[in-house]
Amino acid sequence: MRNRGRALVAAAAIAAGLAAAVVTHASASVAGLLKVRLGGDAQATRLVMDLDQAATGKLLSDGAADGHVVLVLGNVSAQGGLSGNGQGLVRAWSVDQTSNGARLQLDLSPEAKIKGRFLLPPADGVDHYRYVVDLVAVPGQVRLTSARTTPVALKLRPQIAPAITRVSVPAMPARKVIVIDPGHGGHDPGALGAQGYEKDVNLAAALALKARLERSPKYRVVLTREDDNYVPLEERVRVAQRAGADLFISLHSDSGPSADVHGASVYTLSDKASMRAAKFVTREDWFMKASLTGDRGVRDILFDLTQRATKNRSAAFAETLVGHIDGHAPLLRRSHRDAGFEVLLAPDVPAVLLEMGFVSNRADEAMLRDAAQRDRLINAVGDSIDDYFAETTRLAAR
Ligand SMILES: [Zn+2]
Asked: In what order do the strands lie in the sheet with 57-62?
């Protein structure tokens, strides 16, 4: 791990995440999600979320790149979650509760595109609010990648008007979004070991973890880089925010002052780093003015609460992670540490940084470069992610 002095470049990303978090918490009341309905056909499809109060939506991912739409309704509660088979241009959908509100995820058919989103107030015999997402077919549309889901057969129903709906059947589990960040890359090689650079070890481990997680339909995995490219730290944070990440895990390999030092260690955001984020947030730039008007005291409390909740969840995951690695790979003494790494400074996403071992130690480097040995560590990381979400789901269901 190198490159630790970039508070300012990460600042814009922090502000973006913070604004979203604070705006949602500042809403006085929380709307309940009553039902999700789909109507329409393979030319035009309408998704309707029935709500008992007004709500606003924020599009984190419009699906243009991979057909996966992520929309967060900040002041909506969807405890327990909902999911269903698709219809028309929607192959599958799910709604689950996140710390930022209800999150709608859609897997679109290749030609689908979002045409519009809007809130309909009670009217025309309907006594509640409706948040509407309209999709339209763009024939010949090409995407960079396709969403990773089991394709659902499209039902062609050209006679049905978009407003007509049907009850949906649970099909797609509400997937947790895991963002894996392979440290360094491109002209930033990271630490140097006897056999090569840290950046390559990090990427290989990240791809292995992605493969491990994608064996389960429970996860959607997004990488901050998929090849030997340089990605700035603030962009890595933004990737996590755009993806609506439930967990951000940065993978690195250490180098130590002595070749004897070895073992994995886990870092979370420190109080010191939180203070730096808070300090930035009190600056009166345009973004703050636009999104954080109102009483400064309330604003500070909201930020503090958001940070604290995220820090607690980061620390909970870090402890789970250390517990799982123990016995599968060597651990550095006192393995969970607080640190001030900028890449962890997204206040609304639980985040940890895993130093998988020391490339400056011969045994650690050999372990990290051997697929079979490394997989023991990666499986332990995967198991800890399983445990973490099993626990958060259990707590949410109480
Ligand atoms: Zn590193």
From this structure: 57-62, 68-73, 101-108, 90-98, 82-87
Distance 346 CA to ligand 1 centre (A): 18
**Count of CB atoms within 10 A of residue 284's CB?**
8
Query: Of 63, 8, 30, 62, whose CA–CA distance to 129 is shortest?
Result: 30
* Rounded CA separation 199/176 (Å): 26
328-385 pLDDT, tens per residue?
877 876 666 655 555 565 567 788 888 899 999 999 999 999 999 999 999 999 999 9
**DSSP secondary structure, 189-241, as one string:** --SB-SSSBHHHHHHHHHHHHHHHHHTSTTEEEEES-SSS----HHHHHHHHH
- Residue 247 near residue 317 (C-beta atoms within 8 A): yes
Q: 319 CA distance to ligand 1 centroid (A)?
A: 21
Q: What is the mean pLDDT of the chain?
A: 75
Question: What's the mean pLDDT in 291-298?
Answer: 41
Residue 259's alpha-carbon distances to 97, 325, 354, in angstroms, are: 46, 21, 19
Q: What is the DSSP string of 146-199?
A: ---S--------TTS-TT--BPPPP-S---EEEEEEE--BTTB--SB-SSSBHH
Whole-model pTM over 0.70: no
Residues recorded for the chain:
398
CA of 175 to the centre of ligand 1 (A): 29
DSSP character at residue 121: P
pLDDT in tens, 150-175: 333 333 334 344 444 444 444 556 78
- Residue 181 Cα to ligand 1 midpoint, Å, equals 11
Q: Using one digit for the tens of pLDDT, what is the confidence trace for 27-47?
A: 457 888 888 888 888 888 888
